[in-house]
């Protein structure tokens, strides 16, 4: 599927005033990049993509496998203009660039970076957990596909993210993605110690009722995670086959990722 077919008309949702952007420390500076994967076949469905990992995230999920990207370092991260030049040399070899993190929408320079990628003729993918719904709504017209992380049921968010307002922001972002018509995958990283199976089913039902068409469950993987209790508690056969069948029936496409 081409980037063109993945994009559809965008109607920007109105967001409550209290969901205004958290201030970025980036101003007009270039994108703060903490990592680059030059080729990936698994970060944008059906596309070969480069993945740009943007520094910074306001949330602190215990299962995070990129905790080194949570803080925005004072030292010089990877140079965005150099990365852009590298991406230009890959035109014809890759289809798209995915901005991931961290939480890429934290960076005020993301829109300009997306425009630069589009100017190369490449598609734009975005991985987000929705911490900044107003900026996300502004970015969606520049995005061909979004992978939207949903941590858990919206009344349980703080237990995962450690941040009280995170549910409100995530819900507004989820609604913005759905209202935009941009191609999407919603996904939830699950661990048996954090997500009882009945809670996973309740979340899947809620997302389906909201209009989510494409959903994935990603079973926790210990790589990068610094939480010892999560690392040492096995996932075994979780999630069970009956749950997976019931979740799968709710969506147009459903994917289970075990690593
Ligand atoms: S939202 Fe994503 S990047 Fe931020 S702490 Fe949670 S898992 Fe890590």
Characterise this structure.
With 259 residues, the protein is of the alpha/beta class. The protein has one domain: Alpha-Beta Barrel (TIM Barrel), CATH 3.20.20.70. It has helices at residues 3-6, 80-89, 110-119, 133-139, 157-161, 166-180, 197-210, 228-232, 241-248, and strands spanning 33-40, 49-54, 96-100, 123-128, 145-149, 183-190, 214-219, 253-257. It has an eight-stranded mixed beta sheet. A hairpin with an 8-residue loop joins strand 1 and strand 2 (49-54). Helix 4 (133-139) runs parallel beside helix 6. It is globular and about 50 Å long. 41% of the residues are buried. The model is unreliable at 1-27 (pLDDT under 50). The site of iron/sulfur cluster has 11 residues, from loops.
Q: Which terms summarize this structure?
A:
19% strand, binds iron/sulfur cluster, 259 residues, TIM Barrel, alpha/beta, 8 strands
Layout of secondary structure:
Layout: H1 3-6, E1 33-40, E2 49-54, H2 80-89, E3 96-100, H3 110-119, E4 123-128, H4 133-139, E5 145-149, H5 157-161, H6 166-180, E6 183-190, H7 197-210, E7 214-219, H8 228-232, H9 241-248, E8 253-257
Helix pairs in contact: 4-6
The site of iron/sulfur cluster (SF4) has 11 residues, from loops.
């Amino acid at each position: 599927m081409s980037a063109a077919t993945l994009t559809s008309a965008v109607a920007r949702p109105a967001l409550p005033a209290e969901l205004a952007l958290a201030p970025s420390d980036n101003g007009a500076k270039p994108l703060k990049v903490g990592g680059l994967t030059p080729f990936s076949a698994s970060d944008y469905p059906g596309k070969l993509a480069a993945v740009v990992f943007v520094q910074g995230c306001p949330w602190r999920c215990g299962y995070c496998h990129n905790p080194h990207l949570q803080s925005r370092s004072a030292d010089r991260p990877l140079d965005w203009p150099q990365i852009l030049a590298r991406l230009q040399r890959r035109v014809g070899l890759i289809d798209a660039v995915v901005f991931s993190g961290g939480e890429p929408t934290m960076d005020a320079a993301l829109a300009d970076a997306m425009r630069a990628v589009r100017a190369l003729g490449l598609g734009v993918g975005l991985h987000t957990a929705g911490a900044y719904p107003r900026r996300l709504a502004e970015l969606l017209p520049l995005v061909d596909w979004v992978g939207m992380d949903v941590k858990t049921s919206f009344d349980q968010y703080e237990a995962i993210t450690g941040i009280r307002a995170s549910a409100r922001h995530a819900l507004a972002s989820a609604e913005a993605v759905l209202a935009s018509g941009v191609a999407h995958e919603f996904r939830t990283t699950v661990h048996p110690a954090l997500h009882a199976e009945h809670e996973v089913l309740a979340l899947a039902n809620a997302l389906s009722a909201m209009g989510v068409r494409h959903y994935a469950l990603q079973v926790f993987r210990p790589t990068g995670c610094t939480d010892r209790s999560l690392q040492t508690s096995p996932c075994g056969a979780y999630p069970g086959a009956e749950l997976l069948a019931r979740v799968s029936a709710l969506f147009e496409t459903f994917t289970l990722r075990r690593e």
